[in-house]
């Protein structure tokens, strides 16, 4: 585990850069009100975003207030925790490229499906 | 080659060099984001230290106390529903960023943990017990219940698909 210190430092450095250069306005600008597009955009934005999960709830809440659909916000907060572009090199190095591709592909599809199903169930429920 | 005889080598040195170079280039270009990025990096490292300490401690415990046979019984091919419960429960309870858990998961895989359980563990991490009240406050109780249940179901399904995928790719070799 000690041997991974340089890799962990590198990923943390990248996370710092992302948090410094990618703003909330940039995230809000990728949504256009179309449910399909927004679910996909929410997943991709969540993949790129990095930070603690609590930040995704705050950002998601703000996006909802700005009129972004619940499909997009659900995908965004799910992808935030389960997918991550920044950590891909480390995941591939530690767990293998094949496993990393398979896991991220499955998580990507799951995030889209769970987001759509969550909103559908809520619409039926409410 | 046995685990003890494996040669020690730093991993990710090139990546770290690339990131340091990126910071240097941005600094030389006079980009105003470098200072805040370094501050955020320091903040994340401070937050990460206790999580890494827990992961190192757990890895040491596993390597010292858990023999491969016992681990296979809990997380290997023969683990059954107990394996799913452990993976999903550990995913829900684990804190910190995903990458902090890679070294421990690598250790567990080396000892026989199934890929399906790894996938389930990582996806179940979307459920954060301490943050559930906050999710309720932001998105409502019904949203929180539905999302939590669907996430758990998706984590389990992903694990099942991953296990079949791994088995198929192994049998094709």
Tags for this model:
heterodimer, A: 126 residues, mainly alpha, 7 helices, B: 173 residues, 0% strand, globular
Order of helices and strands of chain B: HHHHHHHH
User: Which spans of chain A have pLDDT < 50 for at least 5 consecutive residues?
Assistant: none
Q: Please indicate the percent range of residues of chain A in DSSP E strands (runs of 2 or more).
A: under 5%
Which percent bin holds the helix content of chain A? Answer: over 70%
End-to-end CA span of chain B:
22 Å
Radius of gyration of chain A: 15 Å
Biggest sheet overview of chain B: none
Determine the mean pLDDT of chain B: 86
Main sheet overview of chain A: none
Strand content of chain B: under 5%
Number of strands of chain B: 0
General description of the model:
The complex is a heterodimer of chains A (126) and B (173). With 126 residues, chain A is an all-alpha fold. Chain A contains seven helices and no strands. In chain A, helix 5 packs antiparallel against helix 7 (97-125). The longest helix of chain A has 29 residues, at 97-125. Chain A is globular and about 50 Å long. The mean pLDDT of chain A is 88. Chain B is mostly helical and 173 residues long. Chain B is 75% helix and 0% strand. Chain B contains eight helices and no strands. Chain B has helices at 13-28, 34-65, 68-75, 80-93, 102-110, 115-124, 132-139, 141-172. In chain B, helix 4 (80-93) packs parallel to helix 6 (115-124), helix 6 packs antiparallel against helix 8 (141-172) and helix 7 crosses helix 8 (141-172). Chain B is globular and about 55 Å long.
Lay out the secondary structure.
The complex is a heterodimer of chains A (126) and B (173).
Chain A: H1 5-21, H2 24-28, H3 35-48, H4 53-65, H5 70-82, H6 88-95, H7 97-125
Chain B: H1 13-28, H2 34-65, H3 68-75, H4 80-93, H5 102-110, H6 115-124, H7 132-139, H8 141-172
Helix pairs in contact in B: 2-5, 4-6, 6-8, 7-8
């Amino acid at each position: 585990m000690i041997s991974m210190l340089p890799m962990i430092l590198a990923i943390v450095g990248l996370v710092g850069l992302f948090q410094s250069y990618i703003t909330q306005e940039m995230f809000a600008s990728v949504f256009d009100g179309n449910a399909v597009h927004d679910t996909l955009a929410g997943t991709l934005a969540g993949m790129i975003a990095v930070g603690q999960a609590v930040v995704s709830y705050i950002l998601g809440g703000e996006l909802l207030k700005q009129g972004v659909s619940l499909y997009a916000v659900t995908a965004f907060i799910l992808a935030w925790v389960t997918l991550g572009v920044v950590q891909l090199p480390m995941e591939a190095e530690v767990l293998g490229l094949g496993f990393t591709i398979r896991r991220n592909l499955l998580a990507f599809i799951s995030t889209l499906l769970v987001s759509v199903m969550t909103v559908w169930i809520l619409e039926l429920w409410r | 080659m046995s685990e003890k005889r494996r040669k020690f080598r730093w991993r990710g040195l090139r990546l770290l060099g690339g990131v340091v170079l990126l910071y240097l280039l941005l600094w030389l270009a006079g980009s105003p984001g470098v200072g805040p990025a370094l501050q955020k990096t320091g903040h994340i490292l401070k937050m990460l230290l206790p999580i890494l300490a827990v992961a190192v401690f757990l890895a040491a415990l596993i390597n010292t106390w858990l023999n491969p046979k016992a681990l296979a019984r809990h997380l290997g091919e023969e683990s059954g529903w107990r394996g799913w419960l452990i993976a999903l429960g550990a995913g829900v309870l684990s804190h910190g960023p995903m990458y902090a858990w890679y070294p421990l998961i690598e250790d567990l895989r080396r000892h026989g943990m199934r890929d399906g359980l790894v996938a389930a563990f990582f996806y179940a991490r979307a459920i954060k017990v301490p943050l559930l009240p906050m999710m309720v406050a932001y998105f409502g109780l019904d949203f929180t219940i539905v999302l939590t249940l669907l996430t758990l179901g998706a984590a389990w399904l992903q694990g099942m698909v991953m296990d079949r995928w791994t088995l198929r790719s192994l049998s094709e070799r």
